[in-house]
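WARN no homologs supplied; continuing
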Amino acid sequence: MTAPLIGVLALQGDVREHLIALAAADATAGPVRRPEELAGLDGLVIPGGESTTMSKLATLFGVMEPLRERVRAGLPVYGTCAGLIMLADKILDPRSGQETVGGIDMIVRRNAFGRQNESFEAAVDVAGIDGPVDGVFIRAPWVESVGADVEIVAEYGGHIVAVRQGNALATSFHPELTGDHRVHGLFVDMVRAAG
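OK structure emitted
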């Protein structure tokens, strides 16, 4: 597989930044808004944004159930911030009616690092990447607990901030906002290995 085709769920959030990061990591990337656009993808990124809104829009646009099916069938998927919440099997403090795609056996806490004005950047050591990455934490969640099959990929301040289970990768932070495309490169490598 030379340049895998990776979609970015384009219902809300920092879609353009992910498209740029994926292109820099040698993938062909495009936005995904409708169920039929999931067909033919080698992988998918679920961006940051607001997880409750994203959940409602995914249901409204008819993409939630087809996305769940593709993830269950092994489609490589990477979620950042709200995307991490969307990939969780359970949310500790969900909003009324909030749903997830699931795919990672973890329990997450929304806005765990604080409100918007408490956003910060920090160096984060990520397994599989040489040297720390610049983690941008914006109303970021953290992972409260993981199941036996989940690999903890990064921790910060005593909290789990990146995980992997099978073909699914998730980070609490936003690497797409930094110009450092190594986390996207890691995901593109996962997509190639799955193909």
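The radius of gyration is 15 Å.
OK
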